[in-house]
Automatic annotation (TrEMBL):
Family note: Belongs to the Mediator complex subunit 27 family.
Pfam families: Med27
A single GO cellular-component term on record: nucleus
Sorted UniProt keywords: Nucleus, Transcription, Transcription regulation
Protein name: Mediator of RNA polymerase II transcription subunit 27
This protein's record includes keyword Transcription: yes
Organism: Ranatra chinensis
Length: 292
């Protein structure tokens, strides 16, 4: 590339000095040549310019001689067809194309430089971020827990609440589906993925229990909705067992659904519904309208 640049530079210089010759000829004898022997002065100036042209021509020849023959035709891909374009306004495409090639080259160069700079500069923040993410990701296998571990957790929760009966089935292979019966108040179906709660449906006692249909009763549809909020609230990838335990404790607190009054208004019914909300921490009952 370097000799080519030198050659192009030499051509530029040659063109410049040839231009000077012609401009000198065009101007002819000027006032600054004075009165005395102005023809001789003019001729000597021209002679000087011509000899510099000869000198520069020699430079060009030298530079061209040092160039090596390109190994073959340049592969320009489809762009070579642009030279066959005969519509005037489209001929400008080629120079635009060359410009964009230059831009891409520059971007390439700059990005290489910045990669080198950035790799020296060990951006601490993002590195710690990515490492904590990695550390967190390791126990995030809450969805990939062996079935016997799930069974152990569930049966310990089942023993914890005598009035809540939990039975485990696995209709979809490895993942457990819990059928929960809470005294004679409600029943629920909880779909797990490993130890992660994926879906909850709450229905009335005696309703057919499945994952896809909702309860006939507004009160249980409301509790289903709230249990989705609870499922998300308690969800913890790092402590999946605690998440399930907390959720089941929260669900268990509905055993007083039809007996406990609202913590705020003190009434049993509001808009013809019992307190369908349970506080995540205190498990206190509230009506939907009273929880805020
Ligand atoms: Zn209330």
């Amino acid at each position: 590339m370097e000799p080519l640049h030198t050659a192009l530079g030499a051509i530029k210089v040659l063109r410049c000095s040839v231009g000077q010759v012609f401009s000198c000829l065009a101007n002819g004898v000027r006032a600054d040549h004075g009165e005395e022997g102005r023809d001789a002065k003019f001729l000597s100036e021209l002679d000087e310019l011509l000899s510099s042209v000869t000198q520069h021509l020699r430079d060009v020849e030298q530079a061209v001689n040092s160039l090596s023959q390109p190994p073959g035709p340049f592969t320009l891909g489809n762009t070579s067809f642009l030279s066959q374009e005969c519509t005037q306004e489209r001929q400008a495409l080629y120079s635009q194309l060359v410009l964009s090639y230059k831009w891409t080259d520059k971007i390439h160069e700059f990005s290489n430089l910045s990669v080198a700079l950035l790799s020296q500069n060990s951006l601490k923040r993002s590195y710690t971020n990515s490492s904590t993410a990695k550390r967190r990701r390791a126990p995030t296998s809450s969805h990939n827990v062996p079935p016997q571990n799930v069974d152990t957790v569930i049966s310990s929760i089942d023993r914890q609440f005598p009035d809540m009966n939990i039975s485990v089935s696995r209709p979809f292979g490895a993942n457990a589906v819990l059928q929960v019966t809470l005294s004679r108040v409600l029943q629920a179906v909880v779909a797990l993925k490993g130890l992660m709660i994926e879906w909850v449906v709450v229905k009335g006692y005696g309703e057919t229990l499945d994952l896809w249909s909702e309860s006939r009763h507004k009160v249980f549809r409301k509790i289903t909705e709230n249990s989705h909020a609870a499922m998300l609230h308690f969800s913890s990838p790092t402590m999946p067992e605690l998440a399930v335990r907390s959720f089941m404790t929260w669900l268990h607190s509905f055993n007083t659904l039809f007996s406990d009054p609202c913590k705020r208004c003190g009434n049993h019914l509001h808009s013809a519904l019992p307190p369908t909300w349970r506080d995540f921490r205190s498990l206190e009952p509230f009506h939907e309208e009273c929880k805020h």
